[in-house]
Amino acid sequence: HQLLREELPGAQVMIVSNREPYIHNLVEGKATLQIPASGLVAALEPVMRACGGVWIAHGSGSADRETVDSRDRIAVPPAQPDYTLRRVWLSDEEQDGYYYGFSNEGLWPLCHIAFVRPSFREADWGEYFAVNAKFAEIVVEEATCDDPVVLVQDYHFALLPRMIRNRLPKATIITFWHIPWPNSETFGICPWRNEIIEGLLGSTILGFHTQFHCNNFIDAADRFLESRIDRESGSITLGGRETLIRPYPISIEWPPSPLATQPPIDECRRRVRERLGLSSDARIGVGIERFDYTKGILDRMRAVDSLLSLHPGWRERFAFIQAAAPTRSKLSTYSSLQNEAARLADEINKRHGVRDWKPIHLVVRHHEQDEVYELFRAADICVVSSLHDGMNLVAKEFVAARDDELGVLILSSFAGASRELSEALIVNPYDTTSMATAIDRALHMSESEQRERMRLMRELVRQHNVYGWAAQMLIHAARLRKRERIMTED
Ligand code: G6P
């Protein structure tokens, strides 16, 4: 907040994202508040709480729009408001084409390279274009000046930066792409690749999690557009306007707010074991995420299977809890993953189960933040086995939850987080046996080694928290704004 006042005096801050930070769903006739499982929301909500402004997002809850909590414009967080949430309503057609279709059947598999064939349909593209234009309209409507600072979020809004630029030429537009950007051969599959790159180049700054993804984007612009590229400074100039392409590894708030209400570690350990009917000395591994094929959930279960075959001594002593929140279930790739996971869990449980003990506990539902933290705190190990991931904030949340400095993180080398959390046990999720070996090693790791690793990781997340992430982008934007002003005064 202070930084904003100093660096960007008087600036209005707006965020645009598809997912809203507060969803009001109708539960037993009452509007009930839910915080969605989304890395993007987890990262940006604390930033907005700190700096205030307007967050424009798709209104996705099932609660009646007339009820107080689900109006178009509400002050949030509901208990103690710091900023405004402006909801944009989408028709089923818009939602099918823009969200399920182009964003999640096209761009999501395209960028994650998770061996799910991307589907691109003309009609989806039409809705994607129209919804981006609709949000541009709302940004203009919500702007109280001609030069707001607009933070555009993610792959749902590749066209929005250029659309805002056309309407508000003086705006400072910072766009952040939360998922990977693939190499140019892969990206070139998209029939609207040029429009997407041009759209993103309406931004003042375009951020990715890693330098590698920045390079991939620069390569794609180089290959598909007539633009001027300066690789050294990481800038692309198109139609006389420059965009800076920069890495900003996203993070979480520190200290994490859900920790404030957590009971001591021993109590978390006791509660979770009791709930699952496990003995008090049972060892526990956890995996927690949206039920998404990019997360490597099946691969992780196969690793548990392999662990119990290679080291049967863990039978009846180790259990793996997979908490998975249903997501995008309307798409067949997602619903079939849920079925396949349930089938695989059953098969593994039959193979290794003994009396009423079973190795895999698959819990398919949304988990509230305090439940997630309780699981993290109760666990001996946490497995993040993404097949490809921009960053992965679950890895950072696990580390943040462990104020006892114990617990082992097993982390995929294909998640952006592995570049920062190098003290985790880094694994290749496609290699089941080596993942099984890593789980065995984690379960045998001495407390002193756990502590050494955990301390270093906690220090990194503490220093590079989400406020630093946002501040970096805002400081860069402020600098560019000042430079532009001086140039136009000249
Ligand atoms: C990823 C995306 C976010 C998205 C989140 C949850 O983290 O980068 O943009 O919000 O997944 O997915 P959903 O489709 O439920 O918003």
From TrEMBL:
Q: Name one GO molecular function term.
A: alpha,alpha-trehalose-phosphate synthase (UDP-forming) activity
> Which biological process annotations from GO are given for this protein?
trehalose biosynthetic process
Record's keyword terms, sorted: Membrane, Transmembrane, Transmembrane helix
Query: What family does the entry list?
Result: Belongs to the glycosyltransferase 20 family.
Q: By what name is this protein known?
A: Trehalose-6-phosphate synthase
Native organism: Methylocystis echinoides
Gene name of this polypeptide = otsA
Full protein stretch here: 268 to 757 of 778
